[in-house]
Design a protein that fits this description.
Strand content: under 5%
Shape: elongated
Largest sheet: 2 strands, parallel
Structural class: mainly alpha
Order of helices and strands: HHHHHHEHHHHHHHEHHH
Number of helices: 16
Radius of gyration: 25 Å
Oligomer: single chain
Number of strands: 2
Length: 407
């Protein structure tokens, strides 16, 4: 993964922000780096070494600081080496060794506690905007769509067409989800069990299952299409559903059980007794230092997965909030212009039919974003995590751009 620590990157960003003329505030940096509301909090976390931004955010921060991403990364790499060398030089006196180990122990505890708090905070924020978008737009659209008789079955490309298309995996994946949603709506309109009447979370979960496990024209499950249609990396993060499992939102605290906090906490628990002692002999100091180093290593190994998770939650929440506000408004305008029930597809006219199709695409985007598999991120090996991060970034970018082009 990256060759620099979160601590080093944070220090470099802080230094360059302060070096601006006049010094740039965290709020100003967040605005110039295109963070949403609360962006100053994100910059503060980065500068404190709690989180490292993803490639997209890092490039925006570098540009805001009048740097290139490569320049910013190189300074962070150099400082990482310098900090490691400093910590490799242990004080000679036992008293100084004890003080240094206590400081490092406190730092690990601080990071572990902050990770827990950040995850819970962002998870709850995501849950709120996700549920709003689900209820105010997604299920409201489903209710209206079910009232339209004889809506055409959406076209489904065959596998040969999927292999030859120039569209990205994210575009094809979202298109497949839109097809799945449309078919679920048609089934509900014909008397199936899936529909708005089933209740927001339950019906949304059912739609997610239909969209992800429905069939393409070839008979293959949409979630297992091969070739350009769905790379292995894309499937690893887009074939799950833990960001909003069952349509009920993502339980942020549960994510901590993957080892982001559990591993370092377990390492420190074994050493806690010695931290409380006012005096320690050399053997006790060696044991505590070993445990602290193990906790630091556990934090380092899980840092990249944590960074990706935080970036996903932040960006996904922005997309959900946009749909909740602007999608709901656009849907309300469309509703007012619909003919009275019972409605036939032909009675809609061309413009309202096109809007129906656009809302299907929007619903597919929302479902794709909400079904990103966080658990896969947090347990992935470095090489797989790189591919997953790339696939997620592509999906979030494509979904965000598509949604904004529609509404």
């Amino acid at each position: 993964m990256s060759d620099f620590s979160a601590e080093a990157l944070g220090l470099v960003i802080h230094e360059h922000r302060q070096a601006q003329t006049p010094p740039m505030t965290q709020e100003e940096l967040a605005k110039r780096a295109e963070y949403g509301k609360g962006g100053a909090v994100s910059i503060s976390r980065i500068e404190r070494g709690l989180v490292s931004p993803g490639e997209y955010r890092l490039a925006a921060i570098a540009l805001a600081l009048q740097m290139t991403p490569e320049w910013l990364k190189q300074e962070a790499k150099d400082l990482t080496v310098s900090l490691a060398n400093q910590r490799g030089q242990r004080p000679e006196r036992l008293r100084d060794q004890v003080a240094e180990t206590k400081r490092r122990h406190a730092r690990v505890n601080e990071i572990a506690a902050e990770r827990s708090r950040i995850t819970q905070e962002l998870g709850e924020a995501f849950n709120k905007v996700h549920d709003d978008a689900r209820d105010k737009f997604f299920m409201a659209f489903v209710g209206l769509a079910e009232s339209i008789r004889d809506a055409p079955e959406p076209g489904k490309p065959n596998e040969q067409e999927l292999e030859s298309t120039s569209e990205t995996p994210a575009a094809i994946h979202i298109g497949a989800m839109s097809v799945g949603i449309a078919n679920a709506i048609r089934g509900a309109a014909a008397g199936g069990a899936v529909g708005a009447a089933a209740g927001g979370a339950a019906a949304y979960g059912a739609f997610a299952a239909v969209a992800m496990f429905g069939s393409a024209s070839t008979g293959a499950a949409i979630s297992t299409l091969s070739g350009v249609a769905a790379t292995n990396a894309t499937l690893a993060v887009l074939g799950g559903g833990t960001l909003a499992a069952g349509g009920a939102g993502m339980a942020g605290g549960a994510l901590l059980l993957t080892g982001m906090v559990a591993a370092p906490a377990a390492a420190l628990a074994a050493a806690g007794f010695y931290v409380l002692k006012q005096r320690r002999n050399k053997k006790e100091e060696e044991r505590l230092r070993t445990e602290v180093e193990a906790a630091e290593e556990a934090l380092g190994q899980s840092q990249q997965g944590f960074n990706v998770m935080i970036d996903v939650l932040d960006r996904a929440a922005e997309i959900m909030e946009y749909v909740s506000i602007h999608g709901t408004h656009a849907l309300g305008k469309w509703r007012k212009n619909l003919p009275p029930e019972p409605r036939d597809w032909e009675a809609l006219g061309h413009d309202r039919q096109e809007r129906y199709k656009e809302f299907l695409t929007l619903a597919g985007c929302l479902l794709a974003v909400s079904s990103i598999n966080i658990s896969a991120l947090l347990t992935a090996k470095p090489d797989a995590l790189r591919e997953m991060d790339k696939a997620i970034d592509e999906t979030l970018r494509y979904a965000g751009q598509t949604i904004r082009s529609i509404i």
